[in-house]
């Protein structure tokens, strides 16, 4: 009888502070735990007793990589509560802002966090010594996403131009013209990115995931849609709490999400969106996906880097469409008035479904808030990947096995918070 424990005390190349522990027993994985030990950040509590109009600026502080997702889920939930619909060019500007976030967030992950796993480097800096052209392309591509956030959001990190009902200021059409030129370059760079990552060596591992994503009748999912799954789920965001629940686990300060009534784990994010909304990608994104060997769905989490590259391309295409069609609105926002009630919304952060719920009173004061980020929703599924996959890698040397465990975590691009740390590994072989 043999027992081995793989411990990664500080996961590298993830956004935040986490650790990994995998226990092996008689050649099988006995347990796998993603230990998130960052203390709770209490943002839901910060929102209580604040006026609802403060929400976009408060929730943007949750994440420096995907602040737009938090802002969009927040304003959509409050507009749902207030009975307001934002359409026309303001709605399109929101999609454009989301395009910027997807470009910068996915590109950061593809080039600096995940590609080193496949090319055998400790990180992007080390990789740049041998792959300077690719890393330069990645940095320039990320910069284009940041430029969209700068123009529409007022700044690249923690945007300040979003408000309930629209924007504090809408851009002039002539301001978008330089972005279009940059995006034409970015679109070509995204194609090069997809072809580049398709040359990597991928472990052939798949699972029969329960995919959960937003689904819109005519658009690849960003801001709006019903919450659907490949198992028949089809609900409004208002019904989220009736179908999903969060629970505490001893090894993590982050909650784990599951289907209620023992329905198990589920997967949100690029693989779910791609597999359930392939037909709504732009024609070019579909063409490149087929060219690099992706089918209409993808169940291999190690190939998630390919799907993210295709989503970068889609975001460039969609941003160019919005800019081409843009007509300056008469007013940069729709007026809103406070009223008591509860509002719900879900949007698609780069890493997956992001759910918000708010209660406000007649004065517009927030009395309760709930935020369920994609990393919480994916944690149980991630640990199941480790249990399923790591057992087939046990013939690897310790260092390679440790690397494969970390790579399995990084398939998800977990956003624990915004930091990068070093790694120390402890491994006991019986």
Automatic annotation (TrEMBL):
GO molecular function per UniProt: ferredoxin hydrogenase activity; nickel cation binding
Pfam family, one: NiFeSe_Hases
InterPro entries, A to Z: Ni-dep_hyd_lsu, Ni-dep_hyd_lsu_Ni_BS, NiFe-Hase_large
Highest rank taxon of the organism: Bacteria
Amino-acid positions noted as binding Ni(2+) in the UniProt annotation, renumbered to this chain: 63, 66, 415
Keyword Metal-binding found: yes
Residues binding Fe cation, per UniProt: 66, 418
Keyword GTP-binding found: no
Keyword terms of this UniProt record: Iron, Magnesium, Metal-binding, Nickel, Oxidoreductase
Cofactor(s) needed for function: Fe cation; Ni(2+)
Binding annotation for Mg(2+): 44, 371, 421
PANTHER family: COENZYME F420 HYDROGENASE, SUBUNIT ALPHA (PTHR43600), CYTOSOLIC NIFE-HYDROGENASE, ALPHA SUBUNIT (PTHR43600:SF4)
Record's protein name: Ni/Fe hydrogenase subunit alpha
